[in-house]
Protein backbone atom coordinates (compact mmCIF):
# COMPACT_ATOMS: atom_id res chain seq x y z
CA UNK A 1 0.00 0.00 0.00
CA UNK A 2 1.36 3.36 -1.04
CA UNK A 3 1.85 5.86 1.77
CA UNK A 4 0.89 8.51 -0.76
CA UNK A 5 -2.67 7.46 -1.21
CA UNK A 6 -5.50 5.25 -0.07
CA UNK A 7 -4.50 1.72 -1.21
CA UNK A 8 -2.57 3.38 -4.05
CA UNK A 9 -5.80 4.51 -5.65
CA UNK A 10 -5.91 7.63 -7.83
CA UNK A 11 -7.02 10.81 -6.05
CA UNK A 12 -8.42 12.71 -9.02
CA UNK A 13 -10.48 10.91 -11.63
CA UNK A 14 -9.01 10.46 -15.09
CA UNK A 15 -11.16 11.88 -17.87
CA UNK A 16 -13.90 9.51 -19.02
CA UNK A 17 -13.42 10.91 -22.53
CA UNK A 18 -12.81 8.22 -25.10
CA UNK A 19 -10.33 8.61 -27.94
CA UNK A 20 -12.97 10.64 -29.75
CA UNK A 21 -11.71 13.67 -27.85
CA UNK A 22 -8.05 13.05 -28.72
CA UNK A 23 -9.14 12.62 -32.35
CA UNK A 24 -11.15 15.84 -32.14
CA UNK A 25 -8.08 17.72 -30.92
CA UNK A 26 -6.53 16.73 -34.25
CA UNK A 27 -9.53 17.32 -36.54
CA UNK A 28 -10.41 20.64 -34.86
CA UNK A 29 -6.81 21.80 -35.32
CA UNK A 30 -6.79 20.56 -38.92
CA UNK A 31 -10.02 22.46 -39.64
CA UNK A 32 -8.50 25.63 -38.18
CA UNK A 33 -5.14 25.27 -39.91
CA UNK A 34 -6.62 24.53 -43.32
CA UNK A 35 -9.15 27.39 -43.04
CA UNK A 36 -6.28 29.75 -42.33
CA UNK A 37 -4.38 28.32 -45.30
CA UNK A 38 -7.45 28.76 -47.52
CA UNK A 39 -7.98 32.36 -46.43
CA UNK A 40 -4.36 33.23 -47.18
CA UNK A 41 -4.50 31.40 -50.52
CA UNK A 42 -7.69 33.22 -51.48
CA UNK A 43 -6.19 36.60 -50.61
CA UNK A 44 -3.04 35.92 -52.65
CA UNK A 45 -4.63 34.19 -55.65
CA UNK A 46 -3.64 30.56 -55.13
CA UNK A 47 -6.65 28.50 -56.26
CA UNK A 48 -5.26 25.03 -55.56
CA UNK A 49 -4.35 25.82 -51.94
CA UNK A 50 -7.64 27.65 -51.49
CA UNK A 51 -9.75 24.77 -52.71
CA UNK A 52 -7.75 22.22 -50.72
CA UNK A 53 -7.96 24.31 -47.56
CA UNK A 54 -11.67 24.97 -47.80
CA UNK A 55 -12.64 21.38 -48.53
CA UNK A 56 -10.31 20.01 -45.85
CA UNK A 57 -11.72 22.46 -43.32
CA UNK A 58 -15.27 21.32 -44.08
CA UNK A 59 -14.36 17.62 -43.89
CA UNK A 60 -12.42 18.10 -40.65
CA UNK A 61 -15.31 20.09 -39.24
CA UNK A 62 -17.69 17.25 -40.05
CA UNK A 63 -15.39 14.75 -38.38
CA UNK A 64 -15.05 17.04 -35.34
CA UNK A 65 -18.80 17.30 -34.94
CA UNK A 66 -19.12 13.53 -35.14
CA UNK A 67 -16.39 12.93 -32.53
CA UNK A 68 -17.81 15.51 -30.12
CA UNK A 69 -21.37 14.23 -30.28
CA UNK A 70 -20.30 10.58 -30.20
CA UNK A 71 -18.29 11.11 -27.03
CA UNK A 72 -21.26 12.42 -25.06
CA UNK A 73 -22.85 10.11 -22.52
CA UNK A 74 -26.19 11.28 -23.93
CA UNK A 75 -25.54 12.11 -27.61
CA UNK A 76 -29.19 13.03 -28.26
CA UNK A 77 -28.77 15.88 -25.81
CA UNK A 78 -25.90 17.52 -27.73
CA UNK A 79 -28.03 20.63 -28.21
CA UNK A 80 -28.03 21.20 -24.43
CA UNK A 81 -24.59 22.70 -25.11
CA UNK A 82 -26.44 25.64 -26.65
CA UNK A 83 -28.50 26.47 -23.53
CA UNK A 84 -25.82 28.73 -22.05
CA UNK A 85 -22.68 30.65 -22.98
CA UNK A 86 -20.25 30.33 -20.04
CA UNK A 87 -16.82 31.97 -20.08
CA UNK A 88 -15.77 29.74 -17.15
CA UNK A 89 -16.40 26.66 -19.29
CA UNK A 90 -13.92 26.26 -22.14
CA UNK A 91 -16.24 23.59 -23.55
CA UNK A 92 -19.11 26.07 -23.70
CA UNK A 93 -16.89 28.68 -25.34
CA UNK A 94 -15.63 26.01 -27.74
CA UNK A 95 -19.16 25.05 -28.70
CA UNK A 96 -19.87 28.61 -29.78
CA UNK A 97 -16.51 29.01 -31.51
CA UNK A 98 -17.06 25.75 -33.41
CA UNK A 99 -20.62 26.74 -34.34
CA UNK A 100 -19.54 30.12 -35.71
CA UNK A 101 -16.61 28.54 -37.52
CA UNK A 102 -18.87 25.85 -38.96
CA UNK A 103 -21.18 28.33 -40.66
CA UNK A 104 -18.33 30.32 -42.15
CA UNK A 105 -16.27 27.31 -43.24
CA UNK A 106 -19.38 25.66 -44.71
CA UNK A 107 -20.11 28.73 -46.80
CA UNK A 108 -16.52 28.91 -48.02
CA UNK A 109 -16.49 25.23 -49.00
CA UNK A 110 -19.89 25.48 -50.71
CA UNK A 111 -18.59 28.34 -52.83
CA UNK A 112 -16.08 25.95 -54.41
CA UNK A 113 -18.88 24.72 -56.68
CA UNK A 114 -19.01 28.22 -58.22
CA UNK A 115 -17.47 27.16 -61.56
CA UNK A 116 -20.29 24.64 -61.99
CA UNK A 117 -23.03 27.23 -61.46
CA UNK A 118 -24.84 29.19 -64.21
CA UNK A 119 -22.77 32.23 -65.20
CA UNK A 120 -24.87 34.92 -63.36
CA UNK A 121 -24.51 33.08 -60.04
CA UNK A 122 -20.74 32.56 -60.17
CA UNK A 123 -19.82 36.10 -59.07
CA UNK A 124 -22.08 36.14 -56.01
CA UNK A 125 -20.94 32.64 -55.06
CA UNK A 126 -17.29 33.74 -55.18
CA UNK A 127 -18.05 36.79 -53.03
CA UNK A 128 -19.92 34.67 -50.50
CA UNK A 129 -17.05 32.18 -50.49
CA UNK A 130 -14.49 34.90 -49.93
CA UNK A 131 -16.53 36.34 -47.03
CA UNK A 132 -17.09 32.91 -45.47
CA UNK A 133 -13.44 31.97 -45.94
CA UNK A 134 -12.23 35.20 -44.37
CA UNK A 135 -14.57 34.74 -41.40
CA UNK A 136 -13.45 31.13 -40.95
CA UNK A 137 -9.82 32.23 -41.11
CA UNK A 138 -10.50 34.88 -38.48
CA UNK A 139 -12.15 32.38 -36.11
CA UNK A 140 -9.61 29.61 -36.81
CA UNK A 141 -6.96 30.71 -34.27
CA UNK A 142 -9.58 30.59 -31.50
CA UNK A 143 -10.72 27.14 -32.64
CA UNK A 144 -7.15 25.85 -32.65
CA UNK A 145 -6.17 27.16 -29.22
CA UNK A 146 -9.28 26.87 -27.04
CA UNK A 147 -8.79 23.10 -26.88
CA UNK A 148 -5.55 23.71 -24.97
CA UNK A 149 -7.56 25.62 -22.37
CA UNK A 150 -10.14 22.83 -22.42
CA UNK A 151 -7.55 20.28 -21.28
CA UNK A 152 -5.66 22.61 -18.94
CA UNK A 153 -8.81 23.69 -17.09
CA UNK A 154 -9.00 20.40 -15.19
CA UNK A 155 -7.49 18.86 -12.08
CA UNK A 156 -5.61 16.42 -14.34
CA UNK A 157 -2.13 17.21 -13.02
CA UNK A 158 0.01 17.21 -16.16
CA UNK A 159 -2.62 18.99 -18.26
CA UNK A 160 -3.22 21.76 -15.76
CA UNK A 161 0.45 22.32 -15.11
CA UNK A 162 1.05 22.64 -18.87
CA UNK A 163 -1.43 25.49 -19.24
CA UNK A 164 1.21 28.05 -20.23
CA UNK A 165 2.65 26.02 -23.09
CA UNK A 166 -0.17 23.79 -24.31
CA UNK A 167 -1.76 26.56 -26.48
CA UNK A 168 1.49 26.85 -28.43
CA UNK A 169 1.66 23.11 -29.04
CA UNK A 170 -1.90 23.10 -30.32
CA UNK A 171 -1.50 26.30 -32.38
CA UNK A 172 1.65 24.92 -34.01
CA UNK A 173 0.13 21.49 -34.55
CA UNK A 174 -2.91 23.09 -36.22
CA UNK A 175 -0.76 25.17 -38.57
CA UNK A 176 1.44 22.21 -39.46
CA UNK A 177 -1.54 19.95 -40.16
CA UNK A 178 -3.27 22.62 -42.28
CA UNK A 179 -0.04 23.05 -44.20
CA UNK A 180 0.20 19.28 -44.55
CA UNK A 181 -3.24 19.18 -46.14
CA UNK A 182 -2.12 21.99 -48.47
CA UNK A 183 0.99 20.04 -49.50
CA UNK A 184 -1.11 16.98 -50.28
CA UNK A 185 -3.50 19.10 -52.37
CA UNK A 186 -0.59 20.77 -54.15
CA UNK A 187 1.00 17.43 -54.96
CA UNK A 188 -2.24 15.93 -56.23
CA UNK A 189 -3.12 18.89 -58.47
CA UNK A 190 -2.70 17.87 -62.11
CA UNK A 191 0.36 18.96 -64.05
CA UNK A 192 2.42 20.39 -61.20
CA UNK A 193 0.27 23.56 -60.98
CA UNK A 194 -0.01 22.97 -57.25
CA UNK A 195 3.72 22.87 -56.62
CA UNK A 196 4.10 26.41 -57.95
CA UNK A 197 1.57 27.58 -55.32
CA UNK A 198 2.88 25.56 -52.40
CA UNK A 199 5.49 27.96 -51.04
CA UNK A 200 3.21 29.35 -48.31
CA UNK A 201 2.25 25.81 -47.24
CA UNK A 202 5.92 24.95 -46.77
CA UNK A 203 6.53 28.12 -44.77
CA UNK A 204 3.38 27.53 -42.73
CA UNK A 205 4.56 23.99 -41.99
CA UNK A 206 7.90 25.36 -40.81
CA UNK A 207 6.35 27.99 -38.53
CA UNK A 208 3.84 25.47 -37.17
CA UNK A 209 6.51 22.87 -36.51
CA UNK A 210 8.66 25.42 -34.70
CA UNK A 211 5.77 26.47 -32.43
CA UNK A 212 4.77 22.89 -31.76
CA UNK A 213 8.29 21.67 -31.02
CA UNK A 214 8.98 24.66 -28.77
CA UNK A 215 5.80 24.11 -26.75
CA UNK A 216 6.23 20.35 -26.56
CA UNK A 217 9.83 20.70 -25.43
CA UNK A 218 8.76 22.99 -22.58
CA UNK A 219 6.00 20.60 -21.54
CA UNK A 220 8.33 17.63 -21.59
CA UNK A 221 11.10 19.32 -19.59
CA UNK A 222 9.91 22.34 -17.56
CA UNK A 223 7.11 20.93 -15.42
CA UNK A 224 9.29 19.01 -12.96
CA UNK A 225 7.65 15.79 -11.85
CA UNK A 226 4.63 16.60 -14.02
CA UNK A 227 6.74 16.44 -17.20
CA UNK A 228 7.40 12.77 -16.50
CA UNK A 229 4.08 11.41 -17.89
CA UNK A 230 4.86 13.09 -21.24
CA UNK A 231 8.19 11.28 -21.51
CA UNK A 232 7.23 7.84 -20.20
CA UNK A 233 5.17 5.01 -21.61
CA UNK A 234 2.74 5.35 -24.47
CA UNK A 235 2.51 9.16 -24.23
CA UNK A 236 6.29 9.41 -24.52
CA UNK A 237 6.39 7.11 -27.54
CA UNK A 238 3.60 9.03 -29.27
CA UNK A 239 5.22 12.41 -28.66
CA UNK A 240 8.63 11.19 -29.85
CA UNK A 241 7.03 9.73 -32.99
CA UNK A 242 5.21 13.01 -33.56
CA UNK A 243 8.42 14.99 -33.28
CA UNK A 244 10.22 12.73 -35.74
CA UNK A 245 7.39 12.87 -38.28
CA UNK A 246 7.16 16.65 -37.95
CA UNK A 247 10.86 16.95 -38.75
CA UNK A 248 10.52 14.52 -41.66
CA UNK A 249 7.50 16.40 -42.99
CA UNK A 250 9.14 19.82 -42.89
CA UNK A 251 12.41 18.54 -44.36
CA UNK A 252 10.56 16.67 -47.09
CA UNK A 253 8.48 19.72 -47.93
CA UNK A 254 11.60 21.78 -48.65
CA UNK A 255 13.93 19.16 -50.10
CA UNK A 256 11.26 17.65 -52.33
CA UNK A 257 9.63 20.86 -53.45
CA UNK A 258 9.94 19.93 -57.13
CA UNK A 259 8.39 16.50 -56.64
CA UNK A 260 4.64 15.91 -56.45
CA UNK A 261 5.20 12.60 -54.66
CA UNK A 262 7.49 14.19 -52.07
CA UNK A 263 4.91 16.94 -51.53
CA UNK A 264 2.15 14.42 -50.83
CA UNK A 265 4.41 12.30 -48.63
CA UNK A 266 5.53 15.32 -46.59
CA UNK A 267 1.91 16.39 -46.17
CA UNK A 268 0.94 12.93 -44.91
CA UNK A 269 3.88 12.96 -42.47
CA UNK A 270 2.73 16.32 -41.08
CA UNK A 271 -0.86 15.13 -40.66
CA UNK A 272 0.16 11.94 -38.89
CA UNK A 273 2.60 13.95 -36.75
CA UNK A 274 -0.22 16.22 -35.59
CA UNK A 275 -2.49 13.26 -34.89
CA UNK A 276 0.01 11.33 -32.77
CA UNK A 277 1.10 14.48 -30.94
CA UNK A 278 -2.49 15.13 -29.86
CA UNK A 279 -2.88 11.53 -28.71
CA UNK A 280 0.42 11.85 -26.83
CA UNK A 281 -0.74 14.94 -24.96
CA UNK A 282 -4.05 13.23 -24.22
CA UNK A 283 -2.42 10.05 -22.92
CA UNK A 284 0.10 11.99 -20.82
CA UNK A 285 -2.72 13.68 -18.95
CA UNK A 286 -4.57 10.44 -18.38
CA UNK A 287 -1.40 8.81 -17.02
CA UNK A 288 -0.86 11.72 -14.62
CA UNK A 289 -4.38 11.36 -13.24
CA UNK A 290 -4.08 7.62 -12.75
CA UNK A 291 -1.01 7.75 -10.48
CA UNK A 292 -1.72 9.52 -7.18
CA UNK A 293 1.90 10.65 -6.79
CA UNK A 294 1.33 13.27 -9.50
CA UNK A 295 -1.52 14.73 -7.46
CA UNK A 296 0.03 14.44 -4.00
CA UNK A 297 3.71 15.31 -4.46
CA UNK A 298 3.33 18.71 -6.18
CA UNK A 299 0.71 19.70 -3.59
CA UNK A 300 2.97 18.58 -0.76
CA UNK A 301 5.81 20.64 -2.26
CA UNK A 302 3.47 23.65 -2.45
CA UNK A 303 2.56 23.26 1.22
CA UNK A 304 6.21 22.95 2.16
CA UNK A 305 6.83 26.30 0.48
CA UNK A 306 4.04 27.93 2.52
CA UNK A 307 4.58 26.56 6.03
CA UNK A 308 2.34 29.06 7.77
CA UNK A 309 -0.87 28.13 5.95
CA UNK A 310 -3.60 27.18 8.42
CA UNK A 311 -3.86 23.41 8.18
CA UNK A 312 -6.06 23.10 11.22
CA UNK A 313 -3.73 22.31 14.04
CA UNK A 314 -1.34 19.78 12.52
CA UNK A 315 1.42 22.32 13.09
CA UNK A 316 2.89 23.05 16.52
CA UNK A 317 0.63 25.64 18.16
CA UNK B 1 -20.66 34.61 -13.21
CA UNK B 2 -19.18 34.79 -9.76
CA UNK B 3 -15.63 35.12 -8.56
CA UNK B 4 -13.10 32.44 -9.39
CA UNK B 5 -11.05 32.41 -6.20
CA UNK B 6 -10.90 33.50 -2.57
CA UNK B 7 -13.27 33.42 0.41
CA UNK B 8 -16.91 34.27 -0.25
CA UNK B 9 -20.49 33.17 0.38
CA UNK B 10 -21.31 31.13 -2.74
CA UNK B 11 -25.12 31.40 -2.91
CA UNK B 12 -25.30 35.24 -3.03
CA UNK B 13 -22.25 35.18 -5.33
CA UNK B 14 -24.22 32.95 -7.70
CA UNK B 15 -27.07 35.45 -7.74
CA UNK B 16 -29.45 34.17 -5.04
CA UNK B 17 -31.32 37.01 -3.35
CA UNK B 18 -32.10 36.54 0.36
CA UNK B 19 -30.37 33.14 0.37
CA UNK B 20 -30.77 31.02 3.53
CA UNK B 21 -27.60 30.31 5.54
CA UNK B 22 -25.04 28.07 3.85
CA UNK B 23 -25.59 24.44 4.87
CA UNK B 24 -23.00 21.69 5.02
CA UNK B 25 -21.51 18.60 6.62
CA UNK B 26 -18.90 18.30 9.32
CA UNK B 27 -17.60 14.72 9.27
CA UNK B 28 -15.70 13.96 12.47
CA UNK B 29 -13.70 10.84 11.66
CA UNK B 30 -12.56 10.42 15.27
CA UNK B 31 -15.96 8.96 16.18
CA UNK B 32 -16.65 7.02 12.97
CA UNK B 33 -17.16 3.32 13.68
CA UNK B 34 -17.26 2.20 10.04
CA UNK B 35 -20.85 0.93 10.11
CA UNK B 36 -21.59 2.22 6.59
CA UNK B 37 -25.11 3.24 7.58
CA UNK B 38 -24.42 6.49 5.70
CA UNK B 39 -23.66 4.61 2.47
CA UNK B 40 -26.83 2.56 2.79
CA UNK B 41 -29.10 5.46 3.77
CA UNK B 42 -27.78 7.52 0.87
CA UNK B 43 -28.43 4.75 -1.63
CA UNK B 44 -31.91 4.13 -0.26
CA UNK B 45 -33.06 7.73 -0.17
CA UNK B 46 -31.51 8.83 -3.45
CA UNK B 47 -32.37 5.65 -5.36
CA UNK B 48 -28.72 5.17 -6.32
CA UNK B 49 -28.22 1.92 -8.26
CA UNK B 50 -26.27 -0.99 -6.81
CA UNK B 51 -22.73 -1.20 -8.10
CA UNK B 52 -22.04 -4.88 -7.82
CA UNK B 53 -21.08 -7.26 -5.03
CA UNK B 54 -17.35 -6.64 -4.80
CA UNK B 55 -14.83 -7.98 -2.33
CA UNK B 56 -11.86 -5.67 -2.72
CA UNK B 57 -9.57 -7.18 -0.10
CA UNK B 58 -8.90 -3.70 1.30
CA UNK B 59 -9.85 -4.01 4.95
CA UNK B 60 -13.62 -3.66 5.39
CA UNK B 61 -13.90 -1.38 2.37
CA UNK B 62 -15.81 -3.04 -0.46
CA UNK B 63 -16.98 0.21 -2.01
CA UNK B 64 -13.53 1.51 -2.95
CA UNK B 65 -14.15 5.12 -3.87
CA UNK B 66 -16.70 7.83 -4.42
CA UNK B 67 -18.25 7.50 -7.87
CA UNK B 68 -21.51 7.88 -9.75
CA UNK B 69 -23.15 5.14 -7.69
CA UNK B 70 -21.45 5.80 -4.33
CA UNK B 71 -22.11 9.26 -2.91
CA UNK B 72 -20.84 8.36 0.56
CA UNK B 73 -17.81 6.11 0.88
CA UNK B 74 -16.41 4.81 4.14
CA UNK B 75 -12.63 4.40 4.01
CA UNK B 76 -10.92 1.86 6.30
CA UNK B 77 -7.22 2.19 7.06
CA UNK B 78 -5.34 -0.29 9.23
CA UNK B 79 -2.02 1.10 10.44
CA UNK B 80 0.53 -1.14 12.19
CA UNK B 81 1.31 -0.02 15.74
CA UNK B 82 4.81 -0.62 17.13
CA UNK B 83 4.74 -3.13 19.97
CA UNK B 84 1.15 -4.18 19.39
CA UNK B 85 -0.58 -6.91 17.40
CA UNK B 86 -3.62 -4.72 16.87
CA UNK B 87 -3.54 -2.09 14.20
CA UNK B 88 -4.63 1.50 14.58
CA UNK B 89 -7.97 1.87 12.83
CA UNK B 90 -8.89 4.92 10.83
CA UNK B 91 -12.39 5.17 9.41
CA UNK B 92 -13.76 8.05 7.43
CA UNK B 93 -16.99 8.67 5.57
CA UNK B 94 -16.06 10.64 2.44
CA UNK B 95 -18.49 12.74 0.43
CA UNK B 96 -18.68 15.55 -2.14
CA UNK B 97 -17.10 18.67 -0.65
CA UNK B 98 -19.61 21.18 -2.11
CA UNK B 99 -16.71 23.58 -2.70
CA UNK B 100 -17.05 27.35 -2.41
CA UNK B 101 -15.34 27.47 -5.80
CA UNK B 102 -16.59 24.32 -7.50
CA UNK B 103 -14.61 23.46 -10.63
CA UNK B 104 -17.26 20.94 -11.73
CA UNK B 105 -19.84 23.70 -11.78
CA UNK B 106 -17.50 26.23 -13.41
CA UNK B 107 -16.66 23.98 -16.37
CA UNK B 108 -20.14 22.49 -16.96
CA UNK B 109 -21.07 23.60 -20.50
CA UNK B 110 -24.82 22.98 -20.24
CA UNK B 111 -25.67 24.67 -16.95
CA UNK B 112 -26.69 21.28 -15.57
CA UNK B 113 -24.55 21.76 -12.46
CA UNK B 114 -25.81 24.67 -10.43
CA UNK B 115 -25.39 26.40 -7.07
CA UNK B 116 -28.39 25.97 -4.80
CA UNK B 117 -29.71 28.60 -2.39
CA UNK B 118 -28.03 26.59 0.39
CA UNK B 119 -24.63 27.07 -1.24
CA UNK B 120 -24.44 23.41 -2.30
CA UNK B 121 -23.67 22.08 -5.80
CA UNK B 122 -26.21 19.88 -7.56
CA UNK B 123 -26.47 18.16 -10.99
CA UNK B 124 -29.77 18.56 -12.84
CA UNK B 125 -30.24 15.11 -14.34
CA UNK B 126 -32.68 16.35 -16.99
CA UNK B 127 -30.06 18.76 -18.35
CA UNK B 128 -26.79 16.79 -18.12
CA UNK B 129 -25.74 15.46 -21.53
CA UNK B 130 -22.84 13.40 -20.27
CA UNK B 131 -20.04 15.53 -21.72
CA UNK B 132 -17.88 14.38 -18.81
CA UNK B 133 -16.02 17.67 -18.31
CA UNK B 134 -16.86 17.91 -14.59
CA UNK B 135 -15.13 14.59 -13.89
CA UNK B 136 -11.47 15.52 -14.51
CA UNK B 137 -12.22 19.05 -13.24
CA UNK B 138 -12.97 17.94 -9.65
CA UNK B 139 -9.81 18.26 -7.52
CA UNK B 140 -11.15 15.58 -5.14
CA UNK B 141 -12.14 12.98 -7.77
CA UNK B 142 -15.74 12.88 -6.55
CA UNK B 143 -18.14 13.29 -9.48
CA UNK B 144 -18.30 10.47 -11.99
CA UNK B 145 -20.16 9.18 -15.01
CA UNK B 146 -22.74 6.41 -14.61
CA UNK B 147 -21.71 4.00 -17.32
CA UNK B 148 -25.08 2.61 -18.43
CA UNK B 149 -26.71 6.03 -18.20
CA UNK B 150 -24.05 8.36 -19.55
CA UNK B 151 -24.74 11.22 -17.17
CA UNK B 152 -22.69 12.58 -14.27
CA UNK B 153 -23.85 11.95 -10.71
CA UNK B 154 -22.80 12.92 -7.21
CA UNK B 155 -24.04 13.85 -3.74
CA UNK B 156 -26.79 16.49 -3.77
CA UNK B 157 -26.50 17.09 0.00
CA UNK B 158 -30.09 15.74 -0.17
CA UNK B 159 -31.39 18.88 -1.87
CA UNK B 160 -34.89 17.39 -1.78
CA UNK B 161 -34.73 16.88 2.01
CA UNK B 162 -32.98 20.03 3.21
CA UNK B 163 -35.46 22.22 1.32
CA UNK B 164 -38.12 20.83 3.64
CA UNK B 165 -35.99 21.37 6.72
CA UNK B 166 -35.01 17.71 6.96
CA UNK B 167 -31.54 16.32 7.66
CA UNK B 168 -29.70 14.60 4.77
CA UNK B 169 -30.11 10.82 4.84
CA UNK B 170 -26.48 10.01 5.71
CA UNK B 171 -26.34 12.38 8.69
CA UNK B 172 -29.76 11.15 9.87
CA UNK B 173 -28.58 7.54 9.78
CA UNK B 174 -25.18 8.10 11.42
CA UNK B 175 -25.34 6.48 14.88
CA UNK B 176 -22.35 8.30 16.38
CA UNK B 177 -22.86 11.82 15.01
CA UNK B 178 -19.66 11.42 13.04
CA UNK B 179 -21.64 13.06 10.22
CA UNK B 180 -23.10 16.34 11.40
CA UNK B 181 -25.36 18.49 9.25
CA UNK B 182 -26.14 22.12 9.84
CA UNK B 183 -25.34 25.74 9.12
CA UNK B 184 -21.74 25.86 7.97
CA UNK B 185 -20.78 28.73 10.28
CA UNK B 186 -22.03 26.78 13.28
CA UNK B 187 -20.37 23.56 12.12
CA UNK B 188 -17.04 25.39 11.88
CA UNK B 189 -17.37 26.55 15.48
CA UNK B 190 -18.31 23.05 16.58
CA UNK B 191 -15.32 21.60 14.72
CA UNK B 192 -12.90 24.09 16.29
CA UNK B 193 -14.19 23.16 19.75
CA UNK B 194 -13.91 19.44 19.00
CA UNK B 195 -10.37 19.91 17.69
CA UNK B 196 -9.19 21.71 20.79
CA UNK B 197 -10.87 19.10 23.00
CA UNK B 198 -8.99 16.35 21.14
CA UNK B 199 -5.72 18.27 21.37
CA UNK B 200 -6.28 18.78 25.10
CA UNK B 201 -6.89 15.05 25.44
CA UNK B 202 -3.51 14.36 23.84
CA UNK B 203 -4.63 13.49 20.29
CA UNK B 204 -2.08 15.79 18.69
CA UNK B 205 -2.51 14.28 15.22
CA UNK B 206 -6.10 15.54 14.92
CA UNK B 207 -6.52 18.23 12.26
CA UNK B 208 -9.32 19.84 10.29
CA UNK B 209 -9.52 19.49 6.51
CA UNK B 210 -11.49 21.74 4.17
CA UNK B 211 -12.66 24.11 6.90
CA UNK B 212 -10.54 27.09 5.88
CA UNK B 213 -12.21 29.68 3.57
CA UNK B 214 -8.78 30.87 2.47
CA UNK B 215 -7.74 27.48 1.04
CA UNK B 216 -7.46 26.69 -2.68
CA UNK B 217 -11.17 26.03 -3.16
CA UNK B 218 -12.44 28.80 -0.87
CA UNK B 219 -13.29 26.24 1.80
CA UNK B 220 -15.51 23.17 1.58
CA UNK B 221 -19.22 23.01 2.37
CA UNK B 222 -18.47 19.49 3.61
CA UNK B 223 -15.32 19.42 5.74
CA UNK B 224 -13.61 16.88 7.99
CA UNK B 225 -11.72 16.19 11.17
CA UNK B 226 -8.92 13.77 10.28
CA UNK B 227 -6.43 11.81 12.37
CA UNK B 228 -3.68 11.57 9.75
CA UNK B 229 -2.48 13.28 6.59
CA UNK B 230 -5.23 13.82 4.00
CA UNK B 231 -3.61 11.59 1.37
CA UNK B 232 -3.79 8.63 3.76
CA UNK B 233 -7.57 8.87 3.33
CA UNK B 234 -7.26 9.46 -0.43
CA UNK B 235 -7.75 13.22 -0.14
CA UNK B 236 -5.54 15.76 -1.93
CA UNK B 237 -3.34 17.62 0.59
CA UNK B 238 -3.70 21.06 -1.00
CA UNK B 239 -6.42 21.16 -3.66
CA UNK B 240 -6.76 24.30 -5.78
CA UNK B 241 -9.75 24.97 -8.02
CA UNK B 242 -8.46 24.72 -11.60
CA UNK B 243 -10.44 27.78 -12.73
CA UNK B 244 -8.29 29.98 -10.51
CA UNK B 245 -5.84 29.95 -13.42
CA UNK B 246 -8.47 30.27 -16.16
CA UNK B 247 -7.83 33.97 -16.92
CA UNK B 248 -4.13 33.16 -17.34
CA UNK B 249 -5.02 30.21 -19.58
CA UNK B 250 -7.21 32.30 -21.89
CA UNK B 251 -4.44 34.87 -22.06
CA UNK B 252 -1.85 32.30 -23.13
CA UNK B 253 -4.31 30.89 -25.67
CA UNK B 254 -4.79 34.43 -27.01
CA UNK B 255 -1.04 34.88 -27.43
CA UNK B 256 -0.78 31.52 -29.20
CA UNK B 257 -3.71 32.51 -31.44
CA UNK B 258 -1.92 35.74 -32.38
CA UNK B 259 1.20 33.72 -33.11
CA UNK B 260 -0.87 31.63 -35.54
CA UNK B 261 -2.08 34.75 -37.32
CA UNK B 262 1.46 36.10 -37.48
CA UNK B 263 2.70 32.77 -38.83
CA UNK B 264 0.07 32.77 -41.57
CA UNK B 265 0.88 36.35 -42.54
CA UNK B 266 4.58 35.56 -42.74
CA UNK B 267 3.89 32.42 -44.77
CA UNK B 268 1.85 34.28 -47.39
CA UNK B 269 3.67 37.61 -47.38
CA UNK B 270 6.86 36.25 -48.95
CA UNK B 271 7.56 36.33 -52.69
CA UNK B 272 5.99 33.65 -54.84
CA UNK B 273 8.00 30.46 -54.76
Structure commentary:
The complex is a heterodimer of chains A (317) and B (273). Chain A contains twelve helices and no strands. Chain A has 317 residues and is mainly alpha-helical. In chain A, α1 runs antiparallel to α11. In chain A, 62% of the residues are buried. The C terminus of chain A is likely disordered. By secondary structure, chain B is of the alpha+beta class. Chain B has a single domain, classed as Alpha-Beta Plaits (2-Layer Sandwich), CATH 3.30.70. At the A-B interface, α1, α3, α4, α6 and α8 of A face α3, α4, β6, β9 and α8 of B.
Compose a concise summary of this entry.
The complex is a heterodimer of chains A (317) and B (273). With 317 residues, chain A is mainly alpha-helical. Chain A has helices at 19-43, 47-71, 90-110, 119-152, 157-160, 166-188, 193-197, 199-221, 228-231, 233-255, 260-290, 293-305.
| SSE string of chain A, helices as H and strands as E | HHHHHHHHHHHH
CATH architecture level-2 label of chain B: 2-Layer Sandwich
Overall mean pLDDT of chain A stands at: 94
Overall geometry of chain A: globular
The residue fraction in helices of chain B comes out at 25-40%
Largest sheet of chain B: 4 strands, mixed
Radius of gyration of chain B: 22 Å
Strand percentage of chain B lies at 15-25%
Tally of distinct domains of chain A: 1
CATH topology term of chain B? Alpha-Beta Plaits
Average pLDDT of chain B works out at 96
Task: Find the CATH topology of chain A.
Answer: Formate dehydrogenase/DMSO reductase fold
Q: Quickly give the structural class of chain B.
A: alpha+beta
* Tally of DSSP β-strands of chain B: 10
- The proportion of strand residues of chain A reads under 5%
State Rg of chain A: 22 Å
Q: Identify the CATH class of chain A.
A: Mainly Alpha
The biggest sheet of chain A, with number of strands, parallel, antiparallel or mixed sense and barrel status, is: none
Amino acid sequence: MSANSYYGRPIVKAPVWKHDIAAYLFTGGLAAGSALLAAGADATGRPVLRRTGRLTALAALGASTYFLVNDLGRPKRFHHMLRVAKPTSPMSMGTWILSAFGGAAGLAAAAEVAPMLPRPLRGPARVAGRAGGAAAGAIAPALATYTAVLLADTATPSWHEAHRDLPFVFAGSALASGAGAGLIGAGLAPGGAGLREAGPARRLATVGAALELYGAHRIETDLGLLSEPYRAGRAGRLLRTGRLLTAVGVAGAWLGRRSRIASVASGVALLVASLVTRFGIFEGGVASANDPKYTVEPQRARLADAPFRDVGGSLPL
Amino acid sequence: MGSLYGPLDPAPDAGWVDAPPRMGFFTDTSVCIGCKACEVACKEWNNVPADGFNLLGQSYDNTGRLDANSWRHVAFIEQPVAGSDDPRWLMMSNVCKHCTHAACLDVCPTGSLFRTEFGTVVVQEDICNGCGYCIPACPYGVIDQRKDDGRAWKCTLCYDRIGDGMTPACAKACPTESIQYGELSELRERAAARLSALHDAGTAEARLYGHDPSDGVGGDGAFFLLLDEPEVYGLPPDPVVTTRDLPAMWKRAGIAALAMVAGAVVAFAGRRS
